[in-house]
Amino acid sequence: MIRKISLMVFISLISVSVFAQYELDIKIPVFKSVSYYAVAVPGEDEYSIPYAIANNQFYLESVRFIDLADTFFMLGNYEQSIVFAQEAIRQALLSDEFVAVELINETERLMNRAYTNNFAAWYPNEFSMGKEYYEESLIAHSENKFDQSIDLSKSSIGILASLQIPEAGAVPPPPAVTTPAAVVTGTRTVPLPSQYTVRPWATARDCLWNIAGYPWVFNDPRRWTELYEANRSRMPQPNNPDLIHPGFVINIPSTGGEVRQGMWDPNTNYGF
């Protein structure tokens, strides 16, 4: 264990010059891309991993070179260990870029599926959110922010892949009628809820985007970031706004002068 730690410290030191060469942020090479193989979607089923990602040769090469660097480090041949460690870092960078491209390609396939089946009419909120994540992933990739691009693509895939193709001949539901966000007036006797318990995706399709769109929350799904910032420190993974488990209690901030109190009650008439 001490040997492994010593090697990683050793590699982290030489990574300064290597990452400077590639004009990227300095970080210890832990080959993050392997964690992106498990692309899961909400619900019980697991989304199948694209073949190209599961057979990522850049990641396999990075592992091979880190093993070689480890071997030569233990033999005391530090110069050769540095050479192998530098190549391991280079392959890890290529791996992240490779995974980012493959996930973008998969997202494009799902976007085409969404357009073909008119998901914009069937699932307007989910489609809009998936499309937004997809477009942001393209921007991140163009700026060589591969980790960010991967996370955004994963979010888009998770949403789009969960949408079911409507049955032949089915008619999409009419557009939802929107009303202004509620503000307590002299005629309102029931305050709006200040908390909401997340329900399962399979039954309620709860995500921050959809929750923000509830009339008694903000009535505007685009304000999901306000929910995220208000609850970020309490979330299972603070840097992952997509991960909210059923049973998680979301605090709803009062941002427009409205009075909020207590937990959301489905049997209460909030005036909508």
Labels describing this entry:
272 residues, two-stranded antiparallel ribbon, 10 helices, 2% strand
SSE blueprint:
Blueprint: H1 2-21, H2 51-54, H3 57-74, H4 78-116, H5 119-122, H6 124-142, H7 146-160, E1 195-197, H8 201-204, H9 208-212, H10 224-231, E2 249-251
Antiparallel strand pairs: 1-2
Helix pairs in contact: 1-4, 3-4, 4-6, 4-7, 6-7
Shape: elongated
* Number of structural units classed as domains: 2
| Mean pLDDT score | 74
Strand content: under 5%
The largest beta-sheet arranges its strands as: 1-2
Helix fraction, binned, reads 40-55%
Detail the poorly predicted runs.
Answer: 1-51, 178-186
Number of helices: 10
Radius of gyration: 23 Å
Order of helices and strands: HHHHHHHEHHHE
User: How many strands?
Assistant: 2
What can be said about the biggest beta sheet? 2 strands, antiparallel
Note the gap between the termini.
Answer: 61 Å
Structural class: mainly alpha
Question: What do these coordinates show?
Answer:
The protein has helices at 2-21, 51-54, 57-74, 78-116, 119-122, 124-142, 146-160, 201-204, 208-212, 224-231, and strands spanning 195-197, 249-251. By secondary structure, the chain is mostly helical. The chain has two domains: 2-160, no CATH class; 176-272, no CATH class. Helix 3 (57-74) packs antiparallel against helix 4 and helix 6 (124-142) runs antiparallel to helix 7. The radius of gyration is 23 Å and the shape is elongated. The model is unreliable at 1-51 and 178-186 (pLDDT under 50).
